[in-house]
Design goal:
The protein is an alpha/beta fold and 253 residues long. It is built from 8 helices and 10 strands. It has one domain: 3-Layer(aba) Sandwich (Rossmann fold), CATH 3.40.50. The strands form 2 sheets. Strands 1-10-9-6-2-3-5 form a 7-stranded parallel β-sheet, with helices on both faces. Strands 4-8-7 form a 3-stranded antiparallel β-sheet. The protein is globular. It starts with a strand and ends with a helix.
Length: 253
């Protein structure tokens, strides 16, 4: 794992977005196309902005996949991840195809199968992800399912996850935060050839420490990233503040 520590969230996002752009260009050069996974949330603002303005990406040759979505939330809601991605990526670049998760699907299990079949036909070149305050990866809250082979699953959101969404300003009250979501599974995320993880903010520092320096355990879902061969962990100094000197200084720049 390559740990890159930036001075602030803006610099972190610029570095993460630039790295993702490089990986997309490399995939297109090598195979004529690129398949990507795109995360949402406050941690991804600068990374997606950088990615959208990066030069030399053949966007018509890119297929994108949605990482997770709340159940029952309309696309018009400010917290909708479909709305987020449409505004911050899909409407800004001429991407060849983008496969949203329909959180309003009448049959969530069938929706999981639908997007699961699609991603099965598109091996992922690069996944942009983040880590939650409870160390969740996508919406895989602890204890995460490390065993399922299903690409997408319906999950229950724990209180810590729901409080994070409230604290970031996406909802007016805790009661308004949905209790269920469709999430890409841990094993599906780990199938990505490269993972670019962006984690800013002091409030995530304990999760970062446990994910990078603790044991690999479903109790810390993001700890599974220790087992991936190509992960770049982009942190700002606040998020990295609880890392040991050895880990924190290993790849900082």
């Amino acid at each position: 794992m390559n740990v890159i520590i930036s001075d602030d969230a803006e610099q972190l996002g610029q570095r993460a977005g630039s790295e993702a752009a490089d990986l997309i260009r490399q995939a297109i050069d090598a195979r004529g196309q690129a398949n990507i996974i795109v995360a949402t949330g406050a941690s991804q603002f600068a990374a997606l902005e950088t990615l959208c303005v990066a030069e030399g990406i053949g966007w018509p040759r890119v297929t994108g996949f949605h990482l997770d979505e709340y159940l029952g939330l309309p696309m018009s809601h400010p917290a909708s991840f479909r709305g987020y991605l449409k505004q911050r990526l899909v409407d800004r670049v001429p991407i060849g195809a983008f496969h949203y998760i329909d959180g309003e699907a009448a049959d969530p299990a069938a929706e999981c199968r639908r997007v699961g079949e699609l991603i099965g036909e598109h091996p992922i070149d690069v996944a942009l992800v983040g880590i939650g305050e409870n160390a969740h990866l996508a919406f895989n809250d602890p204890p995460a399912d490390f065993e399922t082979d299903q690409p997408y699953i319906v999950v229950e959101l724990d209180e810590a996850c729901r409080r994070q969404q409230l604290g970031e300003g996406w909802f007016d009250s805790l009661a308004a935060v949905p209790r269920q979501a469709i999430s890409m599974s841990v094993r599906q995320i780990m199938k990505s050839a490269a993972i670019v993880c962006s984690v800013p903010d002091q409030r995530k520092s304990a999760a970062v420490r446990d994910a990078l320096e603790g044991p690999v355990t479903p109790a810390v879902p993001a700890s599974i990233l220790q087992r991936h061969e190509q992960v770049s962990m982009h942190l700002d100094r606040a998020a990295a503040s609880q890392l040991s000197q050895a880990t924190g200084g290993q790849s900082s720049r």
